Amino acid sequence: MRFGRLTLAAAALLLLMATASVPAGTPLSRTEGQALSSDAFEPRGAAPRPAVQRPHHEPPFGAFVGSWDDHIPQIGQYAQWLGDANLQVGHTYLAGNSWADVEGEPVVLGMWSQWRLADPFRVLVLGVPMLVPSEANVPDGEVARLLGQGARGDFDRHFLKLAYRLVALGGADTVLTLGWEMNGVTYTHRCKPDPAAWKAYWRRIVTVMRSVPGQRFRFDFTPNRGLDAIPWTRCYPGDDVVDIIGMDSYDQPAGGTFDDYVREPYGLQDQVEFAARHGKPVSYPEWGLFRNGDNPEYVQRMVEWMRTHDTAYQTVTDYCPHGFFQCDRNPRSSARFRELMSGSKGASSTGPETAKPARP
């Protein structure tokens, strides 16, 4: 459903506040106190494992179906395909070609925010790049320099403008997967070139965005599953600036099994135990098929995993080769996903507090 642009224009006056200044100092001094003392987890059995919460509700779920506002109707089509399941999570990304992209296109942000506001138990998840251009094979030395600039506040104004826009347009409780997959090599906002600067920069962005009146943002720290280019624990910026500990988890490498994904260093088990130690729920903003083709066992095990851990939300990446609805390459996995998710009611108004889309 498209909303009138005059409705969005009415909020534009609030956006003028985005030119407000940001305090020169941000509370970065707690970073080291929040950091882990080692890159590695304790060997299995070396210390008591933390209790991992197991919710008694269906985690809010959805799918990434496309970034622009004209993809929103596909959420309804997806729900119908799943037997009128209650898809409560809308997932989109900001483009990272320029800082104007990171500030957010008002019409697109407005349409997604209006979709979220149509149901109090919906969740809007927004991928936010930390540096631009986001995917440009920027050398490590230049990445380190840019991270240092960010930590000093050179890019504050762009994130301040994004925060004001989201609040003005109705997205005050958006979940932000800020700098997602930072432990990999795909994005300019990767952590490995300077982990200390990366953590300081994350903390600065969160502080800037939380300074906007009316915001109730949740910040989701979302690495790739596994070791990748750097242990993701080295990038963790601190409990006071992280609300959810996510993980992007695709069916790879070739020949991998779900048990491998659970047990590997920095894999699914390490994620849920790390989150439990830090008192955070987990999430799976990106998951789906990949290197092992049409694999219904992976689908079955992944859905069961998410349903039996403290999962704040999950969104499958639904395009080829990963997905089920918009991709015809995975008929067996598609059938299994429909069997598992059809008619799901999601998190209800009578469900536990953890099922709600935003903090009070």
From TrEMBL:
Family, similarity comment: Belongs to the glycosyl hydrolase 26 family.
Active site: 181 (proton donor), 286 (nucleophile)
Protein name per its UniProtKB record: GH26 domain-containing protein
Record has Hydrolase as a keyword: yes
Keyword entries, A-Z: Glycosidase, Hydrolase, Signal
Record organism: Streptomyces kaniharaensis
Gene3D superfamilies on file: Glycosidases
Source taxon at top rank: Bacteria
Gene Ontology MF, one: hydrolase activity, hydrolyzing O-glycosyl compounds
UniProt domain GH26: residue ranges: 31-350
Ranges where the record places region Disordered: 28-56, 340-360
Transmembrane among keywords: no
